[in-house]
Predict the 3D structure of the following.
Amino acid sequence: MPVAATTVETNSTDENVTMMNTDLHQGPDTMTTTEWTPPSWEEIVSEHSSRVYRLAYRLTGNVHDAEDLTHDVFIRVFRSLHTYRPGTFEGWLHRITTNVFLDKMRRKQRIRFDALTDEWAARLPGRSPSPEQVYADTHLDSDIQEALNALPPSFRAAVVLCDIEGLTYEEVAEVLDIKLGTVRSRIHRGRAQLRTALAHRAPRTRSMPALPQVVPSLA
């Protein structure tokens, strides 16, 4: 979801704190040690809003809730940025997004921002995705998305992170803060439910027609 960058001033004391960290654009395989300065709000929104929205859509299954979840994630990111410690920034965002989603499902209520003050609302990224982004983030066939939506939230989060976002079992365990065995169990059970729900997509085997019986002539 393209997000309009808005200006957010970070706490001056946070900006004076330097720590050893990895660059926002580096993955775990290209990690280098540098002095880390908190990124600007514009940098976070520009680099990561589409990724957060894509994951939010896969977890919620619809545009409206994905937008709401994305906004809530960025609120959490803004409030928690000073606590970020060495690691991949993308993994940190995955963790926040899935935690916010699971919290929401546990509360059994929609995420609403009507009570936010004008000051907070001004800091939130824009809400309207472009048509191209909507298409890119909603291209799964409807029956597949419905099957994902039918999974228990904990199964859905594990399956989406592994099979759609491409994380390894170990990375999923780190993001969800659960044991590796639990990850394997949730993904196995989630995939089994998906196979059942999508059984109509399985190729059907056709039985071979019976060969005509050859009766030898009696000469």
Remarks:
- The chain has two domains: 1-139, 140-199.
- Residues 41-60 form the longest helix (20 residues).
- The two ends are 82 Å apart (CA to CA).
- The beta strands are 19-21, 34-36.
